[in-house]
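Good morning N.,

You mentioned wanting to compare the apo and holo forms, so I went ahead and generated the holo version with iron/sulfur cluster. This is what I fed in:
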Amino acid sequence: MTAAESYYGRPVLKPPVWKVPDVPLYLYLGGLAGASSTMALLADLTGRDRLAGAGRLAAAVGATASVGALVHDLGRPTRFLNMLRVFKPTSPLSVGSWILAPFSALSGAAAASELTGRLPGAGRAAAAIAGAIAPAMTTYTAVLLADTAVPGWHAVYRELPFVFAGSAVSSAGAVGMLAAPEESAPARRMAIAGSVLELVAARRMHRGAGLVGEVYQQGRASAVLRAARTLTCLGLGAAVLAGRSRTARVASGLCLNAAAAATRYGIFEAGRASARDPRYTVMPQRTS
Amino acid sequence: MSFVARNRLSGPLADPAGDAGYPPDHPERVGFFTDTSVCIGCKACEVACKEWNLLPEDGMDLTGMSYDNTGALGATTWRHVAFVEQESTVDLGMPGMGGDQVRWLMSSDVCKHCTHAACLDVCPTGALIRTEHGTVLVQDDVCNGCGYCVPACPYGVIDIRPDTGGAAKCTMCHDRLGAGLMPACATACPTESIQYGPLDELRERAALRVSELHEQGITDARLYGQDPADGVGGAGAFFLLLDEPEVYGLPPDPVVTTRDLPSMWRHAAGAALTAAAVIAGCFLGRKR
Ligand code: SF4
Ligand code: SF4
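and this is what came out, ligand included:
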């Protein structure tokens, strides 16, 4: 494209105003919390108490911190409550707030009961409902990004939820491995299966994006995503060995959580880069 | 109006105000027709808009982009006059007169008041509304500054105001319309480059103007945004351009992002179920 084909090379779109690290953290913590909560529910049902407790705590900490990151981005807590004044099906942020608010309240209650040992019945019920809502927590944020005019996000709306889902499952499994070593077999399998799902979906995502896929292979986004991929592979390898080695278990847990955070940041950054360059707005619209 | 029609996310929609729930006797839909072929770049519209809407200045520095000092539409620039300075070598067939020719294209850009407005669709608080005149308006007291509307707009129009923290864009002078006045920019424009009126009437007038220009041999003249079947269901503010849209900083074929929202939610639901199934699968087998 020549310079004459855009207005002095300026962006056509406004780049997102969302802040770093607030929003990438919000994306990562929400996913971790969701998958941890479902892990806790299944651990509870299969009689793995330590793993259930670890999952409940991770869900509560993740959800609360995720709300915190969102509130920090908005600037004031009342602004988060403001989102709950209406329910708007056309707004993923509205739908997401209605998933996040009950989920974080329920997982908070479940974790409080776990820590204090009080009202165990109510705690179990809260954990069960949270665990059932939880899978939505792992993927709604993908729709949040994709439902914009940002070319790098919109173009990958089919694959992005699977990347987020895989990454959420692997990071939750990693937390389970770290926090409940003696019951860590299912958590280890989650770390492995989630990583594989993430790697496969991310590969499809980068391949299927067409011209806009470039933003995932250039600049800071590319460097961050390459680091994320390396960490995922290391974490995956360590998870395979973690059955016998404590060091491998710890290494895997740390690598996979760092990878999950880096994945969110890399995708966030790729979208911002695609909005800044008018090429990615203009050229796909010209050819389609 | 049927349920399906009321929920239409894209495609032609004759009466957006009626679709938004205003009673049948609501005022007719109004809009802007900006005929750039008569724009002289005086910026009276930019100034009138700032004066009427009490918008702060954006700095007096020239950007270095011809005579443009504001650069783009933004939270405090609701009309933006673009100066496209094109250099081309034209052979005039006269000895010694060939060489670089400069052509200036001037165009006053504004919010498109889309029939299907992505900004309005994604707003989680209900701050962005459809008015009785069919235009799109931000309610300052409801907006919580979440910034979702910013990357959703396919034209890069709306932005967050640093001084108030709220989203802002052209209101089509909603306060003037209520009093039976024209928007300030159209009132100030000395060449009638900015025409205001019922949208249907403007579309007819624009079609006549294009054929007039074509007869005069100006075959590059084209309408932009007037087609009710386009990606945003037709813009409430449309343009007569003398070159490709991207030359003026406009996207060639924008689409309201919400068009794909049902598919996005389907993919997210598929990914969430995948996550749930993967986690459940990890709990099968050996207990430890
Ligand atoms: S041009 Fe952008 S800001 Fe204006 S109505 Fe359309 S989507 Fe909203
Ligand atoms: S910034 Fe304001 S107008 Fe924009 S989406 Fe958020 S609440 Fe709605």
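Residues B 123, 125, 127-128, 138, 143-149, 167 surround iron/sulfur cluster (ligand 2) (CB under 6 Å).

Happy to go through it together on a call whenever suits you.

Best,
F.
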